[in-house]
Design brief:
Distance between the termini: 39 Å
Structural class: alpha/beta
Cofactor: pyridoxal 5'-phosphate
EC number: 2.6.1.-
Number of helices: 14
Oligomer: single chain
InterPro entries: Aminotransferase_I/II_large, Kynurenine-oxoglutarate_AT, PyrdxlP-dep_Trfase, PyrdxlP-dep_Trfase_major, PyrdxlP-dep_Trfase_small
GO molecular function, one term: transaminase activity
Strand order of the largest sheet: 2-10-9-8-7-3-4-6
Pfam family, one: Aminotran_1_2
Largest sheet: 8 strands, mixed
Number of strands: 15
Bound molecules: pyridoxal-5'-phosphate
Helix content: 25-40%
Length: 391
Amino acid sequence: MSTHLAARLQGFGTTVFAEMSALAVATGSVNLGQGFPDTPGPAEVLDVARAAIGTPLDQYPPGPGLPVLREAVSAHVQRFRGLAYDADTEVLVTAGATEALAGAMLGLLDPGDEVVVLEPLYDSYAAGVAMAGGVVVPVPLRPPPAPPGEVSTAPWTLDPAELRAAITPRTKLVLLNTPHNPTGKVLDRAELELVADVVREHDLLAVTDEVYEHLVFAGAEHVSLAQLPGMRERTLVVGSGGKTFSTTGWKVGWVCGPAELVACVRTAKQFLTYVNAGPFQPAVAAGLGLPDAYFAGIAAELEGKRDRLVTGLAAAGLPVVSPQATYFATVRVDGDALAFCRELPHRVGVVAVPSSVFYTPQHADLGRDLVRFAFCKRDEVLDEAVRRLTA
Ligand SMILES: *Cc1c(COP(=O)(O)O)cnc(C)c1O
């Protein structure tokens, strides 16, 4: 631990993703660790970015984002969620969902404010809350039982009593993530109603990270928390083009919400990055306007990859929890997940990430033996990983 690192960032050293990706290179392993696709996004999107480079779009875009993108975000959320947001005052373009989330925490939290989050939690949440001086209060999602060599398709569960017990007089907001990374869970309507009840009853705010909104598989349906009665006016909805258009390096995200809440994020954002990704903004706008068939198509393709991987993991004798959405499947291993993931590249030539890193220290035991495999990879890459795991 660095003696110079600020106290509020102690414990947020180098992410395990960096360690595992380096291990993948060093051992020549198939990397199913970090969740990024290994094929390019749609030509309709990429071509717009290529054409924009070398034009005035290379210069600072307007602070809230290019109008063409804000309008596209607004039309997209209207089309898929039936929610109307004013493109000028209720939509803000950010440097990925990551900046939208960090900006929301910096713009909304006072020191000591508590943020209720589902656990396991995406790694930037705890850091974002900590940078704002807030306190994370985790509420566990629990995996279904999965016998060795079998695929469980039951969803992870949220205990209503545990959610209610997490609320204190210091609670400021609920930070939701659905579809959820790393579990692949999609909150169903009853669960969303529970969250909405709690938020309304205690007069809280909600921030909902929906970057996987289009990567949802048959049998599950994504509903935004903002669609529930009385929730639009107290919810910030965070989205991103990274996962939807296979452009995770572009870092074009956004946040939609009532003007007053969006202004809080904008206040923080203007001193974080001010603006970002000039040439990529019109490209993501073009992507958001693609026909419904594009969005259904990426989900269907990814569902095939999910099945390919979970079947293979089960054939390798592992107990697998099949996700309802996202890029990720979870397995339970014998013993410690971090030790398992450090050995796996040497033993069989495959890299995964220990889901234990997505748990807070106080709940370390809940994730101790869980490992996350990404399946947003070419079929031959998934097949090679399975071949190595089975051998
Ligand atoms: C990938 C991811 C993000 C980050 O999105 P960017 O647009 O790349 O910043 C945020 N939340 C979750 C749950 C993610 O998986």
